[in-house]
Amino acid sequence: MPFQIDLHCHSWFSGDGVSSPEALIASARSKGLHGFAITDHNTCDAFHYMVARGLARTDGTPVDGFLVIPGVEVSTAEGHLLCIGTVLPQMKGKPAAEVARAVQAAGGLAIPAHPYDQFRAGIRERTLETLNVDAIEVFNAAVSFRGFNEKARAYAERRGLPMIAGSDAHHEAAIGTSRMIFETEDFTVRGILTEIVKGARRHEQLLSFRDKLRKTLNNWFRLRRRRTFEAKQSPP
What we know:
disordered C terminus; TIM Barrel; alpha/beta
C-alpha cells in the first residue's frame, strides 16, 4: 500500500509557524496523507506535545492510522539541516557535521534542507562536500527560486544520494503540497526511514502564491511569540 508522507512541516512551536499540531494533522488527513515529519526550527516540543496528547507515539507506530515522525530543522553554523526520525537536544549554532553525527547516532537521518537557497540558509556546496548525510531535499515547495531545487537535484545525482521532497509548510493549508510516496509493509518510523534511504517517489509541487506570501510575512514579522511545550501546560 502506498503511504503519502510530508517530510518537512512546521507548527506554531516554530517561531514562524502558525498552526497547532492538531490542525496540521486534521489538514493532512483531509488531503489523504498518512503522516508527516514534524520538523520545527530548533525544537522538538511539538512532538512531545503530540505524544502527551495521544497524537503520536514514542515507539514509532501510527495512531489511528496516522504516523507522526519526530524531527527538527536545526539552524547549524552552516545552514539548515533536517534531522528526521528522532528527537534531539538544542543544537542551534553547532557545526553541521556535529549535528549530522548526533542525529545518526540517535538512529535518525541527516538531510540538508533546501540547499543552495541562499535566501533561506541553505547549506552551501563547499560544506555539503564535507558532510556525511543520508539524503538531500531536492524539492522544497517554498524554495526562493526553482533553480535552487534543480541545483540540489543535480548535486544529489552526482553523489548518488537519496532524494526527498517536502512542503516546508508553516501553515496547515500548505501541508502536503510536496510529499513522498512510500511503498512499504512496515508503516512505522523505522520503516519509513528505511524507505527514504532506499529511495522513494516524490510528488513535487510549489506552494501557491498565497501560501508562499503567508510564509514570507510570518518569517519577516514573527508577531507571535514562539510557543513551548511547557507553556502549553500552563493555564491560560
